[in-house]
Amino acid sequence: MSSNETLKVLQIASSGMEFFHEQVRVLRGLGIDCDVLYYPPDSRKKKQIHDGLLRKVYGHNPIYYAIRGSLFYPKIVQSTLQTDYDIIHVNSGVVAPLGLLQPQRPIVLTLWGDDLLGNRLAGYQSEITKICAKRSNEIIVRNEEMKNVLPCDATIIPSGVDTSRFRPMDQTASKKAVGWNAADLHVIFPYPKSQTKKRYHIAEQLVEQANMALDETVQLQTISGVDHEDMPQYYNAADVLLLPSLREGSPNTVKEAMACNVPVVSSDVGDVRERLDPVSNSYVCSDDSELKDALVTVLQTGGRSDGREYVEEVSLDRMGERIVAIYESLLEDTEDHNQEII
PANTHER family of this UniProt entry (predicted)? Predict the structure, then answer.
């Protein structure tokens, strides 16, 4: 690829997560021509029924994923035959084997966290991810823990936050906008209750303990299924973000709260300690007792954090620039290798 040509990348992803949408958007803004394939590729009801039957027969195990992968394979072949992509960028270890189905183009593999550190498929997912990582040309991970787990080298690039969207707003006006009681204290838990690793039941217990320790009423606000563009209003209405999670990669919720100058109380997971280390009125905790004490302290003292001062390093633009640098370096290495063969 010459310097004046547009770099063409096929993005393969396991789902349409908001942070993946934003990654594609910022890469396109930087001049990268991105096509996207989602696995599973079709959300129509007929396909959902078919997938549901597969899952009922085989369960979430390697056989189920192998069958789904074989059904997805023609789409990858068709895409790579129709378009001369420079790079295949596979996003998530769940779809990592699919990138290897085409051996002609260099592969960038981004791991999100649970695909490497979690216990999916009774631990098999982590092992499959490691095998695929060794066969990829470049690997991107979210934090140092993930890098240390891999059997090969990787580049740490935290997921990025849109600092133009997530910014400080007036808290009183934000409470009114989202319909929260202006007299109460509000703890935001921006995840579905069903996500086991987020430990909603612990969040409930911590807020109950905070209510017993404080004179004011503390409300736990569970937010999910809200349009991402509306989330800044919810963050700004909150007094603190609570993340008692078991494991994370580089949680965007923490960085979004930082960008809004909202205090954060979190368990010590992923890159949270690195992100919050310089931030005022925010705490990273080793156990549930520390989480309770930190939550009470933040609610008791009041005030915002200075997180926005430290979030630029993990802005969307910075993330995009670093990914593009990996693309360009990989293509240079590939071209040099091809020249040596010639």
Answer: GLYCOSYLTRANSFERASE, GLYCOSYLTRANSFERASE EPSF-RELATED
